[in-house]
Design goal:
There is one protein chain. The chain is an alpha/beta fold and 117 residues long. The radius of gyration is 13 Å and the shape is globular. The chain is built from two helices and seven strands. It has a four-stranded mixed sheet. It has a three-stranded mixed sheet with strand order 1-6-7. Helix content is 18%, strand content 37%. Strand 4 and strand 5 form a beta hairpin.
Length: 117
């Protein structure tokens, strides 16, 4: 389990999270590093994506205007590659995976990473 992982959201991502939360209900993110935009975090209804022993909860994100934390999960194997980074959830124009809740919006979530201090 990571110690004090750094996962944050940009203002644009927070706006989209608030909008999706308002329309769909509580949310979660999962990033597998596999197929289907594996380098992009996928946004689901909370509990819709089944996490398992190969996943790790990196953060419970607090987003202004969202009443509950938004969990951010990653596969353990992906975390092993990225554990020396800080992660920022951002949103960019373009269609991502059809499985992620933002797909119909014409935008997609994206992870920006940088080496941790």
């Amino acid at each position: 389990m990571p110690v004090d992982p750094v996962v944050s959201v940009t203002p644009a991502a927070a706006d989209l999270i608030r909008s999706l939360r308002g329309r769909h209900g509580p949310l979660m993110f999962h990033q597998s590093g596999g197929c289907c935009d594996g380098s992009a975090p996928m946004c689901f209804l909370a509990g819709e994506f089944r996490t398992g022993a190969s996943d790790i909860l990196l953060a419970s994100l607090s987003v202004d205007g969202v009443s509950e934390p938004v969990e951010f999960w990653m596969s353990t194997s992906q975390w092993e590659l990225w554990k020396h980074t800080t992660l920022t959830v951002d949103v960019v124009p373009g269609r991502g995976s059809g499985f992620s809740l933002e797909a119909p919006e014409g935008v997609r979530f994206l992870i920006r990473s940088r080496l941790a201090p």
